[in-house]
UniProtKB/TrEMBL annotation:
Keywords: Oxidoreductase
Keyword presence, Amino-acid biosynthesis: no
Domain Amine oxidase residue range list: 28-480
Membrane-crossing residue ranges in chain numbering: none
Protein name per its UniProtKB record: FAD-dependent oxidoreductase
Record has Disulfide bond as a keyword: no
Cofactor: FAD
Lineage: Bacteria, Bacillati, Actinomycetota, Actinomycetes, Kitasatosporales
Amino acid sequence: MAAPLQEMDGQDGAVGEPKKVTVIGAGIAGLVTAYELERLGHDVEVVEASQEIGGRIRTHRFGPGGAGPFAELGAMRIPAGHRLTMHYIAELGLQNQVHEFRTLFSDDAAYLPSSSGYLRVRDAHKTLVEEFSAGLPERRYRENTLLFGAWLDASIRAIAPRRFYEALHDEIDVELLNLVDHIDLSAYRSGTAANRFDLHAFFADHPQVRSFCPPRLERFLDDVLDETSSTIVRLRGGMDALPRRLAARVRGPVLTGREVVGIDVRDDAVRLRIRQGAGTVVRSCDYVVCTVPFTVLRRMRLTGFDQDKLDIVHGTKYWPATKIAFHCREPFWEKDGISGGASFTGGHVRQTYYPPAEGDPALGAVLLASYAIGPDADELSRLGERERNEVVLRELSVMHPELRQDGMILGVAGLAWGERPWSLGAATVRWGQEAALREAERREAARPQRGLFFAGEHCSAKPAWIEGAIESAIDAAHEIEWYEPRASRVFASARPSRTGGAA
């Protein structure tokens, strides 16, 4: 796991001779790895297959020359408790850009679906409790316990793909409710009318309740709590400031348009087969850090890997994500009383976010019309771009008929991460796994192959978050700093010491 950052601060030069390191991928993991290795005195270059840096951070700017409002088509939020990410934000001089990110159910005027149509968040509690209670066996629970269960169920339904939710729906079981029923929940009622439930605060104060969650729900609950927390932040000028600032701090070359198509691990070197334009070259590297998703890695020609490593490369599961943003003439949702946050829209759309309109009002505003993950994202990505946009517009217009006004939509931008060749997925997902299995898979994903090291959110304890990418990058930098090739270890006793005597 990543060591505390102060252990890396203040070190001048490498342990032993400086190493020459090639980093594959210019996402957050690759850039942090390069940055930290250079701080330790090593020589680093970064090769990136696409023409852009940032990996799965993608800020799209509308308008001529990108002068208009922007949409986050990739990573868009950071839990304030992610200390590594917040450290780098401060170190890169971005702390003044940190602002609140308003999330699902954070605005009383936002919407969510029910069997009787769309409801405002402020009015949803009665219907949610009735529908949740209808599925319970015959037993009377306190009002607050039912409110807890109803909002937990609603949060799972809003965040999980539809098929995943159907499997989890019955896992808020009687044992969990029986335990919660003995706790005074009045302090966790939230919202202007105290008709919502602060799940994040409740589980923070009562961690023992987690042990009563069914195994399939326990890991997923982490993401539910992160995504519905009131302590999530964003970067006001766009999340792409983070990789841009990092790349500017890296002294070695960051080379785009270099696609690695083969990796051959040998005892004395790692040979990379790199495609650039119409040509392909083979380069022999002393050390390599691979930060690309395993979905991309497993399409390369891989030799010199042991079988356990190949198994984890080919077996790691990724979920896709699809985002579609509308550039609107004006933030019409504000006239509807919505000041931010997100609605759970359901259908193919799934989630709809209302980013703050912070730029020139004459340039319009952005609506993140649809954010879908997993099988829901796959359904959208299988459609052609035009059909996909029409489906989202048709479904979302039921909730927001203003979208049908002439001239309301000025432009559309979307990204299906499962289809993008440099990612082939949005994030590693280990929901439903036991903790021991999750840790075993993490360790195997991060395990080096001689001079080939690995980083990326898939190698971390925080998959799907920037925090995980940074954590794994620091781990990889530490491993390279202290790594000795096998031949060096075997013949260490024959090596002269720096004082001239035997080592």
